[in-house]
Amino acid sequence: MSNLPKIAWIGLGIMGSPMAENLIKAGYTVTGYTLEADKLERLAAAGGTAATSVAEAVTDADVIITMVPASPHVEALAYGPDGILAHARRGALLIDMSSITPQTSIDLAKAAADNGIRVLDAPVSGGEAGAVEAVLSIMAGGEQADFDAARPILEALGKTIVLCGPHGAGQTVKAANQLIVAVNIQACAEAVVFLEKSGVDLTAALDVLNGGLAGSTVLTRKKDNFKNRDFRPGFRIDLHHKDMGIVTDAARTVGAALPVGTLVASLVASLRAQGDGGLDHSALLRGVERLSGHTTES
After folding, report:
1. For all residues of the chain together, what is the average pLDDT?
2. What per-residue confidence (pLDDT) applies to 144?
3. Which of 137, 158, 251, 296 is most exposed by smallest CB count within 10 Å?
4. Kind of pairing, strands 63-66 and 118-121?
5. Quick one: pLDDT band at residue 294, thresholds 50, 70, 90?
6. Which ranges constitute the DSSP H helices of the chain?
7. Cβ-count burial of 293 within 10 angstroms (0-12 exposed, 13-18 middle, 19+ buried)?
8. pLDDT tens-digit readout, 139-170
9. How many other C-beta atoms lie within 10 A of the C-beta of residue 152?
10. Cβ(103)–Cβ(168) below 8 Å
């Protein structure tokens, strides 16, 4: 019998499924719940156990991990008679790895404490590839002791794992991450169109740019998307639109100006309004192409 904590995993999407599977590979017992039957079948095929409800998933778990799209989803899972707080055992650790508002994380930690449940907010960066390769960056908020207890689990999921401060701090850092990523993708997309309209060999140009100060993880991960116009979702425009709303709202609350970020947020929103919300966020290239009369769309 394994002495490792038993894990309940809720949310088996593009990133949640490979993350849960990495925990199984690391020797953890994982019981999963999601609304999509095919995702539960995938978890079972990987060696996990499929649950039929939140209550069934969390009742015997030592650690509960949620990985869902937004604050309303976390709140729906956590609260109410069928939620996590009603059915998790006292002393359990709830790690929310979703990208939500900092205030939602703060409120969840307070409510969970009343039920004897510990909470960490631990959103991630790295996209689908980072989830599959278990090299995510994990930014946590909460108590040091809870972070220390969670660290072996987090180390099965990521490479850069940092406690950023109290409850909500992880979500604040994730909001900053999404600001940087969106602006970076937009800059790369503009460079791609500029290079192509100038008649430069795009592959050669992106290789040399990525070797200098203009290089970035974004360019490394997304340059093939740009070159091949491959916008299959690793991280959807819909989700980045949600995240840009989080960072612009949080920045307004603390009085931080985001002149470039606010512009890029509007470009993300525009792309979504044009029907591209289900595409990867590298599809910001499509918006630049449309503005430049340089579309390669079929």
Report:
1. 96
2. 98
3. 296
4. unpaired
5. confident
6. 16-25, 37-45, 54-58, 71-78, 84-87, 102-114, 127-133, 144-155, 169-197, 202-210, 217-228, 237-254, 259-271, 284-292
7. exposed
8. 999 999 999 999 999 999 999 999 999 999 99
9. 12
10. yes
Q: Where are the alpha helices (DSSP H) in 6-136?
A: 16-25, 37-45, 54-58, 71-78, 84-87, 102-114, 127-133
Q: Give me Rg for the CA atoms of the chain.
A: 20
Q: How many residues are there in the chain? A: 298
Residue 244 near residue 264 (C-beta atoms within 8 A): yes
- Which amino acids are annotated catalytic? 174
Tokens of 150: 């969670």
10-63 per-position pLDDT tens digit: 999 999 999 999 999 999 999 999 999 999 999 999 999 999 999 999 999 999
- Partner residues linked to 265 by β-bridges: none
